[in-house]
Structure formats: structure tokens, C-alpha cells
Automatic annotation (TrEMBL):
It comes from the Bacteria. Residues 231-291 form the DUF4351 domain. The lineage of its organism: Bacteria, Pseudomonadati, Pseudomonadota, Gammaproteobacteria, Methylococcales. This is DUF4351 domain-containing protein.
Length: 295
């Protein structure tokens, strides 16, 4: 699940991902670079061999000739203690051979802090014959307060994955939501990454109630950002909000999906009424009864 989430994130925003996860190597040179995803499954020596699959390998080229091309290997690791530096070294060596380059930079995104090996050395008492290490981004060791106003959408979407005081949880959630709305004009991607934020924020029901009370106005819009919903259509914005609240309340289930489809035909005023009663419900059947009464 986490692998797929971060693969989508990196492939949708490769320039921003490299600038955030691998700034030490990218610097400020990405504006003129061309970024090309590479096939993930490595070629086999024999058809029966097991294959090694990379999370997201990216080829970065500078057409103006400022720098020689570099291959970045981005790997998401959920549990640090399961990370294998040997496997990553294999990936990078295979890719270097396949691409006929020694310019390969491994980058590991650690979702949770923990112990792991930072380097690998092969050799004897007198000499080292292979030394390997990687760039690491420990999300839980980053301070969310340092990135809550960032202009990098990758940083803003990952605010819930960073370190912050418990009492600032809702402010961090809000900063992630606003970052998405401010920096991503595509409505489909907004929907996609609202789910990303919700998944990693994992607010409790009580926190959702508090968020609605403190940060949403009486139309269910984020305070100070109502114009966004006006531009995209109030009904569509309200339907998106109601969908998120209901999925948070009842989870993902087929019966709910059928009911959500019915909500699309409701006027915005009815959707606004719905946001006021969701948190009083216990079962999906409560939504069924509400729909019968308000059609």
C-alpha cells in the first residue's frame, strides 16, 4: 500500500520529489532538466530467474549540457528494520550495468524511524573493494513546522508523516490540505491526494468533528479558501468533502459506494445539511434513511 502511494506521488510530481527527497544531489539545477521514468522490472539473465523491482528509478538529463545525466533510484521503506542495504546495492548495480553509467544515486524514503544499516563495505583487513551508501529521508525525523508553508507540494502532502506536537495535529492537517489546493489546479489530482493526506493523517472521528468546527465554515468550505470551491463549483466541492467525511466515518465498503453515487445528484444545500448530521450516525443505514427523507 505505502509503496504504491509513494510511487504515484513521485511519478505525478517527479521534479518536486527529487527536489525534496534528494536535494543534496539535485541542488537548484532541476528547472532545465528532463526527467524520464525508467522501467521498474530489471531484465533477467535467464527467463526463470527472479527479478528485482525498483520502486521508482528516474533518469535526469540536462539537454543544455550543464551536467551529465544521473539515474536516481527512489525506494520507499515503511519499516526501517526490514530495509536491506544489500538488496538496494543489487538494484543499483544492475541498473548501472543496464544503463551503462556509474552515475546512480540511491535515495531511501523512510516512513517510520528505526535502526537500519547506513552503509555497506566489502573487503578485508587491508582494503575495501566495494563501499556503498545512500541518501536517506527520514520523514518522522523532519519537523513539520519547517515545511508547513513550503512551496514544494511533496513537502506539504507529507506533513502528516513528519514530526509535530500532538496539539498541532489539526493545524498540520489543514496546512497539507491548503498546500494541495493552492499548488494543484487539476481537480482529479486534488481528489487523489486528498485521499493521500487523509490516509496518513488518520484523524479520529473526534478530530474530524473538531476540524469541521474549527476550520470549516457553515458551507463546509475551508475558512479563507471558499473562493476555490466557487471556482470549481460549490456542488462538486461539497460532494468531495461529504465523500471524505463518510469514508472516514464508515470506511470503504460497497454499500457506501452505491449511496455516494446517489449523493452526486443532490443540490449543494442538501449536501451542506448532510455535513451537520454525519457525525451523529452509527451505521451506513443512517445515510440510507437520510436519503429517503431528503430526496
Amino acid at each position: 500500500m505505502h509503496d504504491q502511494n509513494f510511487k504515484n506521488l513521485i511519478l505525478d510530481y517527479p521534479r518536486e520529489a527529487l527536489a525534496f527527497f534528494a536535494q543534496e544531489e539535485t541542488g537548484e539545477d532541476l528547472n532545465h532538466a528532463r526527467i524520464i521514468p525508467i522501467r521498474q522490472e530489471q531484465l533477467k539473465d535467464r527467463l526463470g530467474d527472479r527479478f528485482r523491482e525498483l520502486d521508482v528509478p528516474l533518469l535526469v538529463e540536462w539537454p543544455n549540457g550543464d551536467r551529465e545525466a544521473i539515474v536516481f533510484v527512489l525506494e520507499e521503506e515503511t519499516q526501517s528494520n526490514r530495509f536491506s542495504i544489500h538488496r538496494l546495492a543489487h538494484y543499483c548495480l544492475d541498473l548501472a550495468e543496464l544503463m551503462e553509467t556509474d552515475r546512480v544515486i540511491p535515495v531511501v524514503i523512510f516512513l517510520n524511524a528505526g535502526t537500519r544499516r547506513d552503509s555497506l563495505r566489502l573487503g578485508g583487513d587491508r582494503h575495501s573493494y566495494l563501499e556503498f551508501h545512500y541518501l536517506a529521508c527520514d520523514l518522522k525525523r523532519l519537523s513539520a513546522s519547517d515545511y508547513k508553508d513550503s512551496s514544494n507540494i511533496i513537502a506539504r502532502l507529507n506533513l502528516p508523516n513528519m514530526n509535530y506536537p500532538k496539539q498541532e495535529r489539526l493545524q498540520i492537517y489543514l496546512a497539507a490540505q491548503l498546500g494541495l489546493l493552492q499548488m494543484e489546479p487539476n481537480l482529479n489530482k486534488q481528489r487523489k491526494y486528498v485521499d493521500f493526506i487523509d490516509y496518513y493523517a488518520d484523524l479520529s472521528e473526534q478530530e474530524m468533528i473538531e476540524y469541521q468546527t474549527r476550520y470549516l465554515n457553515d458551507k463546509g468550505e475551508i475558512m479563507g479558501f471558499a473562493q476555490h470551491f466557487i471556482q470549481e463549483g460549490r456542488q462538486e466541492g461539497m460532494y468531495s468533502l461529504v465523500t471524505r467525511l463518510l469514508r472516514k466515518k464508515f470506511g470503504i465498503q460497497p454499500k457506501l459506494d452505491l449511496l455516494l453515487a446517489q449523493l452526486q445528484t443532490l443540490p449543494v444545500e442538501k449536501l451542506e445539511e448532510l455535513t451537520e448530521v454525519i457525525f451523529d450516525w452509527i451505521e451506513v443505514s443512517d445515510l440510507t434513511e437520510w436519503l429517503k427523507q431528503h430526496k
